[in-house]
Specification:
By secondary structure, the chain is an alpha+beta fold. It is built from two helices and eight strands, in the order E-E-E-E-E-E-H-E-E-H. The chain has one domain. The longest helix has 14 residues.
């Protein structure tokens, strides 16, 4: 049985800063709401992009929102055909695993005959 298993999401931290448009309610001089909003651009951390296996993605501005949504945890694996959870994804990257294998091979005297 060939199962299509993928991580539930993948997170990438964005570099630099971004402009975020913040709406604040309009008030009179006494502080009473008078209706409508005033919009101001503020420079904030660029945030994160979260990608999903179906091809969609979302932009998250704050770390608090990342924690609230559960994106700071290791993702579960999901069977894309049935929707069943398959456990946690391996946190070791393919690059790290390749480098680890290379270190073992270079230091092993069994594989190197002089």
């Amino acid at each position: 049985m060939n199962e299509n298993v993928r991580p539930r999401f993948e997170v990438h931290k964005l570099e630099g800063k971004g402009n975020r448009n913040i709406a604040t309610p309009k008030t009179n001089k006494k502080g009473d709401l008078i209706g409508g909003f005033e919009y101001n651009d503020i420079e904030v951390d660029a945030g994160w992009m979260v990608y999903f296996p179906n091809g969609s993605s979302i932009h998250v501005w704050t770390e608090e929102e990342m924690v609230r949504q559960g994106f700071m945890q290791d993702p579960d694996l999901v069977n894309m055909e049935t929707g069943d959870l398959m456990g946690k994804a391996n946190t070791t990257s393919l690059k790290a695993r390749s480098e680890q294998k290379e270190r073992v091979t270079k230091s092993s005297t069994v594989h190197h005959v002089n």
